[in-house]
Design goal:
This protein is of the alpha+beta class. The protein has one domain. The chain contains 3 helices and 5 strands, in the order H-E-E-H-E-E-H-E. The radius of gyration is 14 Å and the shape is globular.
């Protein structure tokens, strides 16, 4: 997913880790929805698909990886919803 981390955000903002520490959240647009790669999963989940999608990336304090995976969505609206659901009730979007 390193190529996803290099994409410019289409939406970005801040969230509060543990309700106190300010952290970043980005939503990026990509052309490939990555599958699980697991042979036990149904083919529609296991294989990569060429489709416009949005990945949620966020940072947390004191982690060795700069960006954490927040999931993927097929629309920007859905990605915003997923980010807010995962990161807590207060996400302050810049745009």
């Amino acid at each position: 997913m390193q190529d996803v981390d290099q994409l410019p955000p289409v939406k970005q903002g801040l969230w509060f880790f543990a309700g106190v520490t300010t952290c970043h959240v980005h939503i990026v647009r990509h052309h490939t929805l990555y599958g699980t790669g697991d042979a036990d999963d149904p083919p529609e989940l296991a294989r990569d698909r060429e489709v416009e999608c949005y990945y949620i990336r966020f940072d947390k304090p004191h982690t060795p990886v700069p960006w954490q995976d927040g999931g993927a969505a097929l629309s920007l609206r859905e990605a915003v919803f997923l980010a807010e659901r995962r990161l807590g009730p207060v996400v302050c979007w810049a745009d």
